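Lecture notes, unit on protein representations.

Consider one protein chain, 444 amino acids long.
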Amino acid sequence: MESVNADERIQKYQQLVMDFYMHPSIKFNPNTGYTYRFAGIPFMGNVPRAIPKVYISDVDGVYEKPDTPSLWMGWLSILGKEFVPKIRTFLESERFKKIREKFYKSTNIKEPAMEVIKELSKSHVNYQDHLEASKVAARKLNLVTGTLEFREEIREIGYRMIGFITGAPQEAVQEFCYSRMGFPITYAYGTKYPFKDGKLIVPQNHEDINLGWQKVEARDKFVRERLCVPEFLQCLMPVPIMSDDPHADEAIATQAGFNPVFWTDLSKGWGWRHPRLESKKRLRGMSEDIYDQILDTLPGKVKVYLPEARDDVTILTNYLKRYELARLRTILTKPREELDIVRKADFIRELGKKAMEVGNGFPIFADHVRGFIDPLKYLFPRDASEIDSMLNILERSQDIESDKNLTRDILSILENHTPEFQVSQRAQRFREKLEELTRELNGE
């Protein structure tokens, strides 16, 4: 029983650090230029012969610009406009609007899917038209700002494989995956609509509808086939997930463990979970309290709500790096060591303030800063020579005003790159919870 309790406490420590590092109110710069390899897994970068990392992503609600057709809606629209005019009346009807609402608000999307399939089948949709409409929809998808830059940025930090798992047609997802994102079509998992002899058919009942891959099944298959690491190492390998639909993706988020789940857009019927989301599709500049309330409704252990990603998806690179730093932190430090880091940060901050107030003690401050930075090199930019040279000057200088400015600049650098240097109510709660956890582990 003691080992179980110990495991639970370690998980509590992981949760504590990740929640702190990933919260948007904690402002710090995770760009260091370092790559840290642990058990062959690269963190924060990529190196030759390192194990490639995988990333799981939705498509609709993630990669199209806000207020433009998703891949699924683009496929339906193009199918009606260019290939099967008969379905246009259905797509413009109030009935179709209600069916779409069911997709967004129901946990069982097979029923509304059956209604769509019945209408398409009545209009004699054939496979060739379906295939062409799928390809056109993928090529015309209006990509959200930063999509291609994001693809390159995450490759640079070791995510060389993205599994695209979404409800859009399989053929459309394959085309998007290959022609728009530059990945093999084997990375695409979409809905396989039922065709027989080239004609769309209606299944016997809605339970027989093959809506493509279930997200968990697809994630497991993708990771199993692409992630060439022993099973005992898979718990260390980051496998982030990006989605916009907590209804459809609740299972995959719940089973993600300590892998991060990024929620980009909660407009799809999730508003009933929080009244503020009823009136606005996406909240910008929300208060910390409102953000936390929304986050509490979302599935997953390590989760971030990032509506800003619908304006520019490259913000996700920043949060991927935050996550990997947090993951490193929990691998490389124990709770007691992390608490020592927090206490040293508080001490150095006060030491620097005191030195600036009285006009002396700068060499002592510099010495403590060196002792703080040395074991945490991976948190600071590779060109940390800047701070080294500042400390060298501070240790020798006799110019009080210059020393005050250098001390102020050094404290600013530490705060900008070290979450533990943050001064806020959240940082204080992090320290208090860390102290409580450390006492538990010590049996106090």
